[in-house]
Amino acid sequence: MRVTWIRLLPTAWLAACASPAGEIQTEIEPPVIVARAAWGSQPDPIPEQRRQTPVRITIHHAGVVWKPGDDPLRKLPALQAWGKRDKGWPDVPYHYLIAPDGRIFAGRPVAYEGETNTEYDVNGHVLVQLWGDFEVQRVTLAQLRATVHLVAWVCRELDISPETIAGHRDWSRQTSCPGKDLYRYIARGDLRTWVQRMLRGEPPKVALRAQLPGGPVEFVPSSPARPQATH
Known about the structure:
Blueprint: E1 5-7, E2 16-18, E3 24-26, E4 32-34, E5 56-61, H1 72-87, E6 96-98, E7 104-106, E8 125-130, H2 141-158, E9 166-167, H3 180-187, H4 190-199
Parallel strand pairs: 4-7, 5-8, 5-9, 6-8
Antiparallel strand pairs: 1-4, 2-3, 6-7
Helix pairs in contact: 2-4
């Protein structure tokens, strides 16, 4: 399959502006995002009543172990087909999906609310999913860096405060998503801090934390393999 890439251009180019929470924001280079057409998206029409105004960002994990050789170009069409067939969803449930090697894939348009298997109201949420099961696997540095870049850009483009960044489990008692290894970067404020620094024009020093005591040992496999530096 031939893969094409897109750079989503910002809707406004301002030298600096203030977000609702008072963060000073600067221009952010758009992340490279694999277009929906490149992975063969075939959504059903989304009802107009599912339109939303994005006001917050919520992080998910796939909750499925990512294995060596897994390919997002196969997994995405399968996820979309499963959702349409078994759940009655018109499209993939997430707005953006991030592979272990840091590639970002476009999912459902952010103008429409996503989907969830739990009880929380997804209206107003931009849903970002990282592939892997972070209850039993560790997030890669490439995924973290891609998440910071993507989330900062989304905050900038949609005028969303980084203070809204949360995990799925913050909205639902029915899940541990996005898994303990990834959730700690949200709970400890690492992700929010990195995004805030990027919005201020300061290169964030994104780094992996040491293994959790009794937590996952193995990183989500990515191709090509990359060494994981921790602190």
